[in-house]
From TrEMBL:
Protein name as it appears in the record: Mitochondrial carrier protein
Native species: Corchorus olitorius
PANTHER family named among the record's database cross-references: MITOCHONDRIAL DICARBOXYLATE CARRIER-RELATED (PTHR45618)
Family listed: Belongs to the mitochondrial carrier (TC 2.A.29) family.
Keywords, ordered alphabetically: Membrane, Mitochondrion, Mitochondrion inner membrane, Repeat, Transmembrane, Transmembrane helix, Transport
Intracellular or extracellular location(s): Mitochondrion inner membrane
Record's GO cellular component terms: mitochondrial inner membrane
Membrane topology: Multi-pass membrane protein
Annotated TM spans: none
Annotated PROSITE patterns: SOLCAR
MF-aspect GO terms: transmembrane transporter activity
Amino acid sequence: MKATTVHGSEETRTRTRVKILLTSLSAMVAETSTFPIDLTKTRLQLHGESQPLSSSSASARRTNAFRVASEIVREQGVLGLYKGLSPAVIRHLFYTPIRIVGYENLRNFVSNDSSLSLSSKALVGGISGAIAQVVASPADLVKVRMQADGRMVSKGLQSRYKGPFDAFTKIVAMEGFGGLWKGVFPNVQRAFLVNMGELACYDHAKRFVINNQIANDNIFAHTLASIMSGLSATALSCPADVVKTRMMNQAVGKEGNVMYRNSYDCLVKTVKVEGLTALWKGFFPTWARLGPWQFVFWVSYEKFRQIAGLSSF
């Protein structure tokens, strides 16, 4: 009996390691495929934040995703669309395995069958995403800073960082070790909302499609589920994503001055200067990225699981 228990525990650990490897691989493929859209989204969200509070100019709002992407290619070439890819991939080596494998383990721990409610799945997804984001926040910070660097170069300013490791070093030297977790609160807020929408909606939508015989457990079901979860995650997370991006992008000045004191201050200033709709800046590129990202990730991950002899997610 004891030998059987030990064998079962070892088999569970082996399956978990395989899932971690497969989620990392799938995330790397999805991140590389959709990174230019993420860069466009980040630049669009940062657009207009340097306008003074008293400014009534509408120039800060006269832009869109296509214009931002065109300017990047014109000024930096096609490779400019991949500025900050390295820390983005590093981030997903931690973030995605923790949230995906963590969600599946928590879901199965709460209920071994498929009867878990959507609200329960949303809570489990949010918790998994929040934990994963705390761990991956330093890499996310470096990614945002490097993406924003390209905008500085386009304005004739000197780039702050030569690469991801240089960024890590300079951030720690100038802002302390805790500086790597700057913006972690809005970051975790966004991660909770994204995963609450993404994981719960994908899981629930896929089971709905299969149980109602709309499609079998195949690429069609995975595609439908990923589209629905992408829209849900984007609508919930976009305001927190804007605040997170701006909080993480700001560096401490020589006199210790910062543009935003905290996430609430950033939220208020953004709405005051640019209007309420500014909280959904980058909605289209965010959804345009989440949709393809989830399609590539989930289709790859489900296929890899099948090849590895694992059950469907």
